[in-house]
Amino acid sequence: MDIESLSAGLSESWRCLVRDWDRCLRSTGRPETTRYNYLLAVIQLGRYVAANTVGDAAEDPAAVSRADVESFQAWMIETRSASTALNKHKCLQQFFQWLAEDEQAVTRSPVEGVRAPQPPTKLVPVISTDDTTRLLDSCKGSGFMNLRDQAMIRLYCNTGARLSEVANLRMEDIDWSTDSLVYHGKGGKTRRVRMGPKTARALSRYLRARARHTGSELPELWLAERGGVPLRANGIKLRLRRLGERAGIARVHAHRWRHTYAHEWKLSGGDTGDLMLVLGWSSDAMARHYGASAAAERAQESQSRMRIGDDV
C-alpha cells in the first residue's frame, strides 16, 4: 500500500497523521485491507474539507468539526450509498478516537454525536452455481494463471473465506495430511478449514505450476503473473472482476461466495454455531445477516407449500 500516493495533495499535517496512524495500525496487527479502508476514509475526509470548507480543517485534522463530518457523511450518501457512508463513519470513529487518546490532539472527537447512517435492509445477492461454473470455465487451461485462478475461485466457493484470508495464505498454511488450510482472520484469530476434493486437486495443480514459476521460493501462496512478487488482496479483487467481465457476470467479488456459503449452509439445515466456527464469526448477528437470503427463500417455500388463500 503506497500511502504517499494515496495521500497526495493533502496538507503535511494530514499526511503526517495518516502515516502515524498507519504505523499504529500495523503495530496492532491490522491486516492491509483493514488499514487501507481506514486510511482511505481519512484521506477522503481530508480532500473533502479541503475542497468544501474554509478554515483550519483543510490544514489540520484536529480542526475538523462535527459539522464537517456530517457534511462529508451526507456527501457520501449522495454520491455513493448509505452503506458506504456507514463504513466511513466507523473508520472515522476509530481515527478520531486515536487522535484524542493516543495523540491527545483533540479533546473531543468530531464524530461524537453524529448519527450513523442507516442503510436500507436488503438481501445480499448470492452467486449461483451456474455463475461459478461459468467463471471456472473462463479460466480453463494449463497455464500458470489459469491454474492459479481456478484454485482461488474454488477456495472462495468451497470455504466461504474472506478476500483477505485467501489472499494472505502462505505455503506453510496448507496441511496435505488433512487437506486443510489455516486462515488468519480478523483480530488475529486463526481457524482450520477443510477443502473438498475438487478444491484440493485444483490447489495441488496450481502448486505444481507455481514450483516452476519465478518467485517460487517466496512464502506467500499466490504469485503474480510476472516479476516474482506475491499477488495481494487488491490484485485478486481486480482479477476476479476481470474474470467476471470475461464471463459476462456482473459484480463478481469474493464476498458474494461468503454470502452464498452461509445461504447454502442454512438452506441445508446446518447448525448456526458450526457455521460461525467455519466462517470465523464471534457473533451470531453475522450469521443472521449472512443467512437472511436463505431465510427469505425458506419462507417463500413454506408460503408456496401452505397455499394460504388459494382455496378461496
TrEMBL record:
Keywords noted in UniProt: DNA integration, DNA recombination, DNA-binding
Start and end residues of each Tyr recombinase domain: 122-304
Lineage: superkingdom: Bacteria
Gene3D superfamilies in UniProt: 1.10.150.130, Intergrase catalytic core (1.10.443.10)
Domain Core-binding (CB): 12-100
InterPro entries, A to Z: CB, DNA_brk_join_enz, Integrase-like_cat_sf, Integrase_catalytic, Integrase_recombinase_N, Integrase_SAM-like_N, Tyrosine_recombinase_XerCD
Protein name listed in UniProt: Tyrosine-type recombinase/integrase
UniProt lineage: Bacteria, Bacillati, Actinomycetota, Actinomycetes, Pseudonocardiales
